Amino acid sequence: MTGEEERAQYDELCAYTLSRRDPEFVHQLVVDAWAAQHATAESKPISPVFALIGLYLHLEHGYTGRQVQLAHMKLAKNRKLWPRLTPPIERGRITVNEPFRALGDAVRDEAAVEQAIGRWCVSVWESWKISQDTIRELVKQELNIEVSRRA
């Protein structure tokens, strides 16, 4: 798959998640998974840091996308210098393609799309293992949220 095809799938998934207007705002998780999976050494530090904070809060603290969005807003007000993270070589086995493929069933089963997005988030978060402690510490310092490692 080309980068353009992958970007088109991401754009379509974004359009779908935004159109749902769900109170949990799963769209934020799509944005964060994409940003973390596509960060480069040239990315502004805020991009992978915020994306990984979003994935961490969702996966290890049970935050909804809306709660992640609010945390991002709070972080943006408080801190201006973010650490530069080194992106891993492998960014997760699951890509936007899996939740995109689930869109075909979205009319019948919105939960299937959300589950695919969840698997994508897990895959991306796990690929950044080397930066996870940095993210946990940032969340503790900046949001006063204790470190958690949900099973």
Q: How does this model look, in words?
A:
With about 150 residues, this protein is mainly alpha-helical. The chain has one domain. About 65% of the residues lie in helices and about 0% in strands. The protein has helices at about 5-20, 25-35, 45-60, 65-80, 95-100, 110-125, 130-145. The longest helix has 18 residues, at about 5-20. The model has no long low-confidence stretch (mean pLDDT about 90).
- Quaternary state reads single chain
Q: Tell me how many strands there are.
A: 0
Count of alpha/pi helices: 7
Radius of gyration: 15 Å
Low-confidence region ranges = none
Q: In the residues, how many domains can be counted?
A: 1
Overall geometric form: globular
Q: Distance N terminus to C terminus?
A: 33 Å
Mean pLDDT, rounded to whole units? Answer: 92
- Major sheet details: none
Percent of residues in beta strands? under 5%
- Work out the helicity level: 55-70%
- Written as H for each helix and E for each strand, in order along the chain, the element string is HHHHHHH
Structural class: mainly alpha
